[in-house]
Amino acid sequence: MRTTVGIVGAGPAGLLLARLLHRAGVDCVVLEARSRARVEGRQRSGILEQGAVDTLRACGAAGRLDVDGVLHEGFELRFGGRAHRFDVSGRTGGRATTLYPQHELVRDLIALQLADGAPLLFDAPVDALEGLDGDRPVIRYTRDGAEHVLECAYVAGCDGADGTARRALLATGAARLHGRGYPYAWLGVSADAPPAADELLLAAHDRGFALHGMRSPTLSRLYLQVPAGTEPGAWPEDRIWEELEARLAVEDRPLNPGPLSDRCVFPLRGEVVEPMRHGRLLLAGDAAHVVPPTAAKGLSLAFSDVVTMARGFAHWRRSGSTALLDRYSDHCLRRVWQVQHFAHAMTTLLHAAPGADAYERRLRASRLDRLVGPTAAAAEFAENYAGLPTEVPFV
Ligand code: PHB
């Protein structure tokens, strides 16, 4: 089989890229290791920056999002026993975030891809990427127990932080991985109860960070900062609710308790592969970078890579010039580091550093205090939270 762009991974990044390329008349094939049911069932946060929503609208992929997406014009920050509404859109000239669960978005993009008749192969794990330094790279993959070869002009690696594409790029020796871990993790749970608020609640408590979000009008999603290495089963349900109440609840505004499910613990980390391209392999999304989840930036950052990449391919296809593709990594990395910086700053501001003394706790409180006032710090925070300007796609 042959194509122009071989896309590895049918997550949001790979699927949006396929959509943009299809609209630009550049043919592509998407290969996905997992089954369609697994891809569509993978529950993840779905906070989209304004620019990500604009991108989906521009390429005709926002039909259900425009009906079911929930606009979040701000969020609530709770600290020192008080709740402070943080108005994002009022500080950014109307830009805000939208909540639309990631698996719904993935379903929409898969349906569009199949309706376009564009090749999308599930249960097709990639075994190797070869010939990345030449002009006809090859993707080797397995399907139905047989080995197959996809010849392409370029390979787009959209298969996440643990995927084949990142490993292949690092194995060339031409890129390095920058990264940092944090001395804490998140314990995540879903509660079968209506969310206690319409917008996200974020708590910066001396006992640790806590977050209250939602998946639907009847399902809440909650997170607690826990020490790195905590086992998911280590905390009984009572203790989870007690801790959520202690960190998140303020007077007269209780949480809505309910049975817990979907328990998980994941470490927080920030990672950047630099450069994001070598030869004919270009990385996008988590394959290229991971941000700690506090600022909910992962999905929108992936979309911003993909818009830049699709623009490069369309330009090359039209003019024969690789100028935009050659600038792909430099162009993306500017934004990647800005978002990395914001996610890191928001993480360290809202989490309790293990072993912090009273002096450090007071410094943190004073920074939080600046954020809820009419300050330049608040304006800058709002701008970053709503999202830096994104290129609007050309299709
Ligand atoms: C979620 O809904 O799972 C969620 C929301 C906001 C975050 C992280 C996760 O920052």
UniProtKB/TrEMBL annotation:
Coiled coil: none
Key words of the record: NAD, Oxidoreductase
Domain FAD-binding: 2-342
Name of this protein: 4-hydroxybenzoate 3-monooxygenase
Pfam families: FAD_binding_3
InterPro entries: FAD-bd, FAD/NAD-bd_sf, PheA/TfdB_FAD_monoxygenase
Gene3D superfamilies: D-Amino Acid Oxidase, subunit A, domain 2, FAD/NAD(P)-binding domain
Highest classification ranks of the organism: Bacteria, Bacillati, Actinomycetota, Actinomycetes, Kitasatosporales
